[in-house]
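Continuing from the previous page of notes. For each protein in this section, the sequence appears first, followed by its structure tokens. Read the first protein now.
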Amino acid sequence: MKAKPTPMFPLGQVLATPGALDTMSELGIAPLALIHRHVTGDWGDLGAEDQQQNFLAIRSGLRIFSSYRLTASTKIWIITEAERSSTTLLLPDEY
């Protein structure tokens, strides 16, 4: 399956860690651009099996995970909780 142009699931409250916000600001990356990719099914650098898990998670109410490589050494993760109460942008070492 490919990313769809419209949201595929509710995000709940959108949050970001200070580290994620600082990193995106330093790199000139808009958080909303990554959130849009996440909610429309573009899960970034995940392999095919992890992407399939996300499609299953949408249907079965499990956690949805995205990973975006911003530079050779920098990633941002986005996690939407299973109950869809919140979506968080964070650095992997903040998990």
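Done with the first. The second protein uses the same format. Note its length before scrolling.
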Amino acid sequence: MRATKRHLANITLVVKDYDEAIDFYTQKLGFKLVEDIDLGDGKRWVLVAPNEGQCNVLLGKAVGDKQKAAIGNQTGGRVFLFLHTNDFCEDYNAMKQKGVIFKEEPRKESYGTVVVFEDLYGNLWDLLQLTS
């Protein structure tokens, strides 16, 4: 029996505005815009991804009070996403220079170098370079 191959393709991130989210992820984090397709009625299919990413972030504009309440707190205050890098210092300094807000100073852990930052809505991310 052949094993099924699966991978995580997209993760939805609820945002207030498509264009401000695209700007943050492409200009401040250096992600690429993978797709931006007009679906009509104010909806768009917007995918951004790190340059070497295997998983895209789908920027989904919040509709209704329940979704709007989740903006910036999709995980109840826990770190939401983990951005791996092979050059922590370069990425950290570039992001800091572009105005990304870091919640702490970088720290060394047994698994690598890590720092928590927030996106434009306050969702928490880890920038992480794993120990080889």
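What the second structure shows: The first strand starts at residue 10 and ends at 15. The longest helix spans residues 18-28. We return to this in next week's lecture.
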